[in-house]
């Protein structure tokens, strides 16, 4: 089982601060599955305006973090190394509860299908073992 630090994730994904939303990959089976961690702190830039006095991680950023974990699962493979996973769609997305400062997100991405230049994952995000978000994500795998 492969584990990746933030600096190793940056060798796979083009995202950088403030848009790299994974702190660590704790499990990785290329083209099959990845598990990523995001420690959500009050210092996150988005909490300044979302929402003052009641900080909540924007749902779209939660979904982006889940997609990034799926991107690592696809792009860590020899076949797709050096490519970009461009987000092209989502289906069956559910945001089940707010994510707030102090939460640790555990995101599980299962590769459903990768064929040619297209990939699909199913991802779930948990806080303290409780499901907070889920959905199916589609990607175009294109040259970097």
UniProtKB/TrEMBL annotation:
<protein>
    <recommendedName>
        <fullName>3-hydroxyacyl-[acyl-carrier-protein] dehydratase FabZ</fullName>
        <ecNumber>4.2.1.59</ecNumber>
    </recommendedName>
</protein>
<dbReference type="Pfam" id="PF07977">
    <property type="entry name" value="FabA"/>
</dbReference>
<dbReference type="InterPro" id="IPR010084">
    <property type="entry name" value="FabZ"/>
</dbReference>
<keyword id="KW-0444">Lipid biosynthesis</keyword>
<keyword id="KW-0443">Lipid metabolism</keyword>
<keyword id="KW-0963">Cytoplasm</keyword>
<dbReference type="GO" id="GO:0009245">
    <property type="term" value="P:lipid A biosynthetic process"/>
</dbReference>
<feature type="active site">
    <location>
        <position position="50"/>
    </location>
</feature>
<dbReference type="GO" id="GO:0016020">
    <property type="term" value="C:membrane"/>
</dbReference>
<dbReference type="GO" id="GO:0006633">
    <property type="term" value="P:fatty acid biosynthetic process"/>
</dbReference>
<dbReference type="GO" id="GO:0005737">
    <property type="term" value="C:cytoplasm"/>
</dbReference>
<comment type="similarity">
    <text>Belongs to the thioester dehydratase family. FabZ subfamily.</text>
</comment>
<keyword id="KW-0441">Lipid A biosynthesis</keyword>
<dbReference type="InterPro" id="IPR013114">
    <property type="entry name" value="FabA_FabZ"/>
</dbReference>
<dbReference type="InterPro" id="IPR029069">
    <property type="entry name" value="HotDog_dom_sf"/>
</dbReference>
<dbReference type="GO" id="GO:0019171">
    <property type="term" value="F:(3R)-hydroxyacyl-[acyl-carrier-protein] dehydratase activity"/>
</dbReference>
<keyword id="KW-0456">Lyase</keyword>
<comment type="function">
    <text>Involved in unsaturated fatty acids biosynthesis. Catalyzes the dehydration of short chain beta-hydroxyacyl-ACPs and long chain saturated and unsaturated beta-hydroxyacyl-ACPs.</text>
</comment>
